[in-house]
Amino acid sequence: MLPVCDHYCGVEARMVKSLQLQASSIEQHGVCAFDVTLDCEDGAPVGAEVEHANLVVALANQAQSASKLLASVRRVGARVHPVDHPSFAADVQTIVGQAGGALRYLMIPKVESRDDVDIAVAAVNQAGGHALPLHVLIESPGAVEQAFAIASHPRVQSVSFGLMDFVSAHGGAIPSQAMTVGRGEDAALDQFHHPLVVRAKLAIASACHAFGKVPSHCVVTEFKDTALLGRAARMAYQAFGYTRMWSIHPDQIPVIVAALSPTADEVVQAGAIMVAARDKEWGPVSVDGKLHDRASFRYFWQVLERAHQAGMEMPTQMQPYFDRTSNELL
Hints:
By secondary structure, the protein is an alpha/beta fold. It has helices at about 10-30, 50-65, 70-75, 90-100, 115-125, 140-145, 145-150, 165-170, 195-210, 225-240, 250-260, 265-280, 295-310, 320, and strands spanning about 5-10, 35-40, 75-80, 105-110, 135-140, 155-160, 215, 245, 285, 290. Helix 4 links the parallel strand 3 (about 75-80) and strand 4 (about 105-110). Helix 2 packs parallel to helix 4, helix 10 (about 225-240) packs parallel to helix 11 (about 250-260) and helix 12 (about 265-280) packs across helix 13.
């Protein structure tokens, strides 16, 4: 289970601030509620790719050398250039070769096929990152058609949807409002309603769930409108099956975490059901007039896992199962 929010930053000051924000959150909650992805694609100034990759190495290693608690819990990744970009090989060799031990994943953008994933895996392995998971970004109509093949790759841990490039790839056949979250009449062809965009999102989410991977939803560019962002995040999660979402501004992080995490009432309900199931030795139980069996036990256990990942307060009788020092967890 990955954190529900993946925060992207590519400017040095913002990368430093994001890592500090992550450290503060971990110290407060004891868990890593959001990832920080240090961006070498959109974040790197053209012509200064080498310098930027070295900056990412320094920041990732510095983050890893923090306290033992932070080092064991925090999650930092990096996005490199696409596999067909002139800087791809150098990115991977520098970042994975010099900071692979500080990274939890590597993001590969503009993946078009399973062959692209194989190219990325070969480069990462050559740099010494044999155990490093890959997150990939699908951004074109052709890549959407390959979503199941891409998601089935054993090194792929998460698949993201690149909305902006996907819309642009249609040569004007999809209107610009499909890159937005609309209101009222403007919502008819926004990113949650345009048929081609909806089809792409569902294909990626379905592919991920078919192979046990994490589908990650695209950014919402209206970053100052937290109400709109919250509505979009809930729609992505509840209607489209995305269990993770990109953030491009620190103010988006708590909104996304809240929207993609269970509510307090859901956590209480899940705790009650799991306690009743445990006491009945996992046989069918009735809770609040509803029958539950192992299928629903699995669902409500996942509710508790998601709540724990978000740093939410756990029901008292469930706390031992999520205590990092508890023998029951082991």
